[in-house]
Design a protein that fits this description.
Helix content: 25-40%
CATH architecture of the largest domain: Sandwich
Oligomer: single chain
Number of helices: 1
Mean pLDDT: 86
CATH topology of the largest domain: Jelly Rolls
Length: 224
């Protein structure tokens, strides 16, 4: 009987120990489960944050590229509009040279503008600046006193496109001489009349408001 009671007590103790072990194990499992849950939630939040950041960076990069493309498109459209723009009338005429005694290397400056459609001629320096690329025609008239001579050149962007001269003998009469020239001028290039050489004694050119003028004129003919 006593042995039976001892055995029962031993079994109860083993059962109690087993129950405690199971309870401890379940508690550890619960703790580990909570830890893994927190870890997974943290990883999930980090992944979502990283994904959101990547998406935002991609959107920003795409927007920047779209802005660049839009700017380039606007630039090209502007260039296209400029290229197909119908040129306006370009026409000028000026008179009264700043000096009546031309000297070698001098640009002849016609100081009084009678017509300047397009504002391309500058009376301060005697230079015509082409507003469009195309064909232009120019004319210069010099009224020269007897006994004087000089040679001059039509210059386009500092390159000659026509050279002429006037030589009045001392016995010849006073007269005016007109010269025409045509050339292709690129946009923003300049055209001027430049003296090559000249007689150096006394006044060479003469002008009368009511009878004869020294003039420089030009006009735009056709775009190319």
């Amino acid at each position: 009987m006593i042995r039976l009671e001892i055995s029962v007590e031993a079994m109860k103790k083993e059962i109690e120990e087993s129950r405690n072990q199971v309870t401890t194990t379940l508690g550890n499992l619960q703790t580990e489960r909570s830890t893994w849950k927190e870890t997974l939630l943290t990883m999930k939040d980090a992944s979502i944050t990283a994904l959101d950041t990547a998406i935002q960076e991609t959107k920003t990069q795409v927007q920047e590229e779209l802005n660049v493309l839009a700017t380039e498109k606007e630039r090209r459209n502007k260039e296209l509009q400029e290229s197909v723009k119908i040129p306006e009338v370009v026409l000028f005429s000026a008179r009264r040279p700043k000096s009546d005694t031309p000297t070698s290397g001098q640009t002849v400056i016609f100081t009084e503008i009678t017509l300047n459609k397009g504002d391309a001629y500058n009376k301060e320096n005697g230079v015509f600046t082409a507003p469009y690329t195309g064909v232009y025609t120019f004319n210069v008239q010099f009224c020269v006193r007897p006994g004087h001579y000089f040679a001059f050149v039509f210059m386009a962007n500092d390159k000659p496109f026509k050279i002429s001269q006037i030589n009045k003998s001392s016995t010849s009469k006073f007269s005016c001489h007109s010269f025409d020239a045509m050339t292709i001028v690129n946009k923003n290039e300049n055209v001027k009349i430049k003296i090559i050489y000249s007689s150096s004694s006394g006044s060479t050119l003469s002008e009368n408001d009511s009878s004869y003028w020294n003039t420089f004129s030009g006009s735009f003919i056709q775009a190319i």
